[in-house]
Design brief:
With about 110 residues, this protein is mostly helical. About 65% of the residues lie in helices and about 0% in strands. The radius of gyration is 16 Å and the shape is elongated. It starts with 5 loop residues before the first helix and ends with a helix.
Length: about 110
């Protein structure tokens, strides 16, 4: 992934997550703490990639969408889904799954 791609990845993931949550742009913006006067326009600009979202606002948007911040920046849908599923598990289960993934990745790399 090129660094220039990150805003576009964020924009696309934000839009899909908002639609999946059945929220309007205004409702998401307000839920994330934006003023009702600017909420719709700001979310629209984030979703179109016309304005980059600062990390603090991105975190509030992720919380409003009930998803981990990292999922909004994941390069693929599969990684985003894995991150989202992983954070729902207790920390000990997360550790076990990460260890298993690392083991599998190590095997793949040695082929």
């Amino acid at each position: 992934m090129e660094l220039d791609d990150a805003p576009l990845i964020f924009a696309n993931r934000l839009r899909r997550a908002r639609l999946a949550a059945d929220l309007t742009q205004e409702a998401l913006g307000v839920a994330a703490g934006l003023s009702v006067d600017v909420a719709r326009v700001r979310i629209n600009r984030y979703e179109k990639g016309g304005r980059e979202c600062d990390l603090r606002t991105a975190k509030r948007l992720a919380e409003a969408l009930d998803m981990p911040l990292a999922a909004l920046y994941a390069e693929t849908d599969e990684i985003a889904e894995a991150i989202t599923a992983l954070v729902k598990l207790p920390v000990e289960e997360q550790r076990l799954i990460v260890a298993e993934l690392q083991r599998k990745a190590g095997k793949q790399g040695s082929r």
